[in-house]
Amino acid sequence: MTVLSIIYVVLFYVAIIVLFGGIANKIMLYKRVPAPLKIPVTPAPLTTGGVVYRLFYEVVFFNSLFRGNKWTWIFGWIFHLSLLLAFFRHLRYLISPDVFFWPLINNMVVQSFGHYAGFTMLIGLAGLFARRILVDRVRYISSASDYLMLLLIMGIAGSGLMIVYASHTDIIQLKAFIMGLFLFDPQNLPADPILLAHITMVLFLAVIFPVSKLLHAPGLFFAPTRNQIDNPREKRHLSEWGAAIEAEDGRNN
Amino acid sequence: MADYDIPETHEFPIIPSIMEGSMAHSSPFVAGKEFQDDMGFPSAEETGELIEGWKEKFLELLQDKLGKYRSLQVFMDTCVKCGACTDKCHYFIGTADPKNMPVARQDLLRKVYRRYFTFAGKYFPKLVGAVDLTEDVVKEMYSYYHQCSECRRCAVFCPFGIDTAEVTMAARDILAMIGMGQKYSNQIIPKVFKIGNNLGLPEPALADTLEGLEEEIEDDIGVKVRFPLDEKGADILLVTPSADFFAEPHVDGLMGYAKVFHAAGVSWTLSSKASEAANFGLFIGNYESMRQISLRIRDEAKRLGVKRIIFGECGHAWRVAYNHLNTLAGPWDFLDQNYPIPQHILEFTKDCLDRGILNIDKSENDWMTLTFHDSCNIARASRIGEDPGSQFTTPRQVIQAVCNNYYDMAPETIHDQTFCCGGGGGLLTDDLMELRIKGAQPRMEALKNSIAEKGVTHMAAICAICKSQFTKVLPYYGMTMDQIVSVHQLVSNAIILDGQGEEAEESDDAEETA
Ligand code: SF4
Ligand code: SF4
């Protein structure tokens, strides 16, 4: 084992713990905090199925953003879709060829779409970055971290593309390294500078993810404005602390 | 009319370039000790100063709210600064002040939240725009959280459903608890408790007013239409905003409700102690006040032994009634479960129209061409009917059932994209007149364009605040105050009651020829 590889093994474990621990922590916090009042933004669905549909539409098509701003929507949507495609492409480094869905990942379609996703991702990010600089309103609300995060992800996409097109790496060894992490059997990591840069940036992203705005997906599912059912007259909505106030003065009896 | 820079209106909406600090001077009067005392809120020796130990108190209250309101906790974290909301606020469009962009308004609190409650803000404040809590920061919050009418237009377009109104409410409540309550709201709420309504209109005066209305209708159409007050055993308790008792055009709406009840032959009553539908507890973000105000209605419903509760035309009052009355003042198991609890007057009237029990002569409204202003709290925080979106269709159906000439305003200014009148959310006070005029710009623009293109003459509304606000600001935009009407005023004009026969019409003709 090279020293470099040992360092990266440690970094990987730390990043994974911070990432999943941080996400779980936030989700638990959101679950714990009650929503004392009914505040769905109407027109809102009348049933649970309706809420699922509303959220599905938001998650998959960014429905509200589409209504709000077409440019941000197109760039944002391209970026997130590319991210999803890139994720699928990377799965082949994470799973073993024995798994039954291996052919679903290791085929021409997923792999080549995954390639192009690197380019479309850069286009989406560049668009978002341009809006931040060019539109006075968006510039006003942006802080340093907003720009840096875009640059970081651009760096990840750019270095990823370079690995594919400019400086190939030993993917067999890379896969062995990753599988080794799963099996707690550390393996060597190929010491290509571009690959290391790519991985370092990804690990950094994973670490800052839970403590930054990057963790915005759970917020969508927990926003009472979107996830509540519009039935306040039919069903009494009462939080625990609301009930405690009632119990104290008995005025609702 | 005092002098203000009236924003220009255009044929097509224009998003202004930002003008930093253009509304930094706008702040409502701070509540003095007497009003803070009435609310049970603390006050410093000098009005407008902060109480001792305000900083610790502020952070303590913020922490408490984060633990009690999922909305606040989630909204503080989730914003990605995408900018989709930046051009959606009528106060931004009308003032160009970037701190009136919804996300920037949230950021006033978020930057403090980040500084004291997040890892990034504690250790890298500069990077994420976190700031220390200082007196200047607090004063800025007081200013800009009173430039938000809690209308939720921003929340419609936010990819995460972030509702700036929730942040405004939380901030206002915290500010009130460190000595910076708003005078207008804190002056009004105690009147509701002591007397029964926002105006401080006591029972004898109210009885007198109602008697006057009975006489007015009798003189007008020759039919005695009753306005019962505190009548035990009535079926329906009508809770309506107190502006309906005397302000124009509100009172014409009240006469409309009474005529509909009369024609439907139902027994109803007003209550002198619950003679107010408005609930300013919502505006100041105070759960306990909102609950106490709601509980008056419960007490009165029990005392009078009614079976149903119906709310008159009001925006935020309907939001609270529709969404929160059950939570705050329920359970309503002692009322008749066959009717929605509470019910909106438009639901009642629409039902009567559908059943064909109202005798309507639409031509009575032929001299007007109407449009309808969707009030924000109704459009984006309630329903009036059974289906999602019925808050848009029901009022229009009622208007079109009593009027021949009706047009909608531009599609991006109605339904859930409607613009606030500019005076909602506890801002309907003279000390915010400049803000109110500027904030009305998008609605005024849409109205003016529908006047020019469709020949609209009047705009109907179903919110007491909208009606008061429009009577005040229409003249600033070159229109007249009587161009705003109540929806039930239109019903009142068109409805023909039994006994409103020959005799009345003859005297009408007589007047005209005379
Ligand atoms: S639309 Fe929502 S996420 Fe985007 S900047 Fe505004 S509040 Fe933040
Ligand atoms: S709630 Fe309305 S007034 Fe407040 S920031 Fe949003 S759009 Fe503006």
List keywords for this structure.
heterodimer; A: 253 residues; mainly alpha; Fumarate Reductase Cytochrome B subunit; globular; B: 514 residues; Fumarate Reductase Iron-sulfur Protein, Chain B, domain 2; 3-stranded parallel sheet; 7 strands; 49% helix
Describe the structure in brief.
Chain A has 253 residues and is an all-alpha fold. Chain A is built from 13 helices and no strands. Chain B folds into two domains: 33-181, Orthogonal Bundle (Fumarate Reductase Iron-sulfur Protein, Chain B, domain 2); 189-494, no CATH class.
Please tell me about this protein's structure.
The complex is a heterodimer of chains A (253) and B (514). Chain A has 13 helices and no strands. With 253 residues, chain A is mainly α. Chain A has one domain (3-252): Fumarate Reductase Cytochrome B subunit (Up-down Bundle), CATH 1.20.950. With 514 residues, chain B is mainly α. Chain B folds into two domains: 33-181, Fumarate Reductase Iron-sulfur Protein, Chain B, domain 2 (Orthogonal Bundle); 189-494, no CATH class. Chain B is globular, with a radius of gyration of 23 Å. The chains are: A mainly alpha (253), B mainly alpha (514). Chains A and B meet through helix 1, helix 3, helix 7, helix 8 and helix 11 of A and helix 2, helix 3, helix 5, helix 7 and helix 9 of B. Residues 79-85, 102-103, 158-160, 162 of chain B line the site of one iron/sulfur cluster (SF4).
Q: Which secondary structure elements does this structure contain, and how are they paired or packed?
A:
The complex is a heterodimer of chains A (253) and B (514).
Chain A: H1 3-32, H2 48-61, H3 63-68, H4 70-94, H5 102-105, H6 108-134, H7 136-141, H8 144-165, H9 171-182, H10 193-208, H11 217-222, H12 224-227, H13 240-249
Helix pairs in contact in A: 1-10, 4-6, 6-8, 8-10
Chain B: H1 33-39, H2 54-68, H3 70-78, H4 90-95, H5 102-117, H6 119-123, H7 125-128, H8 135-144, H9 153-157, H10 164-177, H11 183-194, H12 203-221, E1 236-239, H13 250-264, E2 268-270, H14 287-304, E3 308-311, H15 315-329, E4 343-344, H16 345-354, E5 370-373, H17 376-381, H18 390-402, H19 433-439, H20 441-454, E6 458-461, H21 464-473, E7 484-486, H22 487-494, H23 502-513
Parallel strand pairs in B: 1-2, 1-3, 3-4, 5-6, 6-7
Helix pairs in contact in B: 1-11, 2-3, 2-10, 3-10, 5-10, 13-22, 14-15, 16-18, 18-22
Residues 79-85, 102-103, 158-160, 162 of chain B line the site of one iron/sulfur cluster.
